Amino acid sequence: MKLIIAIVQDEDAPKLIDVLMENNYSVTKLASTGGFLKSGNTTLLIGVEKEKVDEVIKIIKEFCQSRKQVTTSPSLTTVSSGVYVPYTIEVQVGGATIFVVDVDRFEKI
Amino acid sequence: MKLIIAIVQDEDAPKLIDVLMENNYSVTKLASTGGFLKSGNTTLLIGVEKEKVDEVIKIIKEFCQSRKQVTTSPSLTTVSSGVYVPYTIEVQVGGATIFVVDVDRFEKI
Amino acid sequence: MKLIIAIVQDEDAPKLIDVLMENNYSVTKLASTGGFLKSGNTTLLIGVEKEKVDEVIKIIKEFCQSRKQVTTSPSLTTVSSGVYVPYTIEVQVGGATIFVVDVDRFEKI
Ligand code: NI
Ligand code: NI
Ligand code: NI
């Protein structure tokens, strides 16, 4: 038995938890903040058989992949020939940090 | 040294923490939600000597045992000879998921 | 790879997280309450290379050392020659509980 501790972005968490539960994985959601990833993040505890670790990590990678989001910043503008042009800025979103630890003993009561 | 990560139902947590502390176990309570168990749950971190793992699990089993609660549902009624009869429904409460992991190093400062 | 689970006092957490991040450690902050330490506390997850465990523990010890704080209690006073004298009371603050667990597998995506 292994315990997967996954720290993911808040916005990726609901979909990921859904998919994991549809695949019959048990997930516990802890609230967490900052550090590993810039914005708010969520820590998940997922207990799985050793043989399932790869599949869970594959699912996390699929739903939490690091990606760029283009967003327009209303506060940053350039003046070009008298016209204010909003900057578009690229923001890195997604990503995950995953720790897999061995479980000595597992009990479900 | 072992670290016991126990996910229990919110309603069972206060009594369990009380009993563990009366037995001189140190308990840290993390907020957690959904997943392993249907309703709100609480994650506890309990650091113990290897020899004490059995006793802690026994205490958790005693205070978090899975049990059925009969409750009347006001929204579900049957009409029997013109009389509204409230349904009684059985709800599963309690239960716990316990992970025991080995601790390489433990420091209390 | 090791996962350091550190439970520290709320008031020591911000400075500690700052210093750890300035030293390029990734920190995830979980909310936690009571138990190991009397007042509100914070649980940190810090993933580090085996060789860095000592340094992280040294930093935690430096910023979370157990110490006495002298505080005046407005509710406790002695009357001495008609003058109310506030009691000063010593409160134990700081302290930390640290678990280091081995990480089977670590992924950052
Ligand atoms: Ni195992
Ligand atoms: Ni040990
Ligand atoms: Ni390792």
UniProtKB/TrEMBL annotation, chains A, B, C:
It holds the Pfam family CdAMP_rec. InterPro entries: CdAMP_rec, N-reg_PII-like_a/b, N-reg_PII/ATP_PRibTrfase_C. This is Uncharacterized protein YaaQ. The lineage of its organism: Bacteria, Bacillati, Bacillota, Tissierellia, Tissierellales.
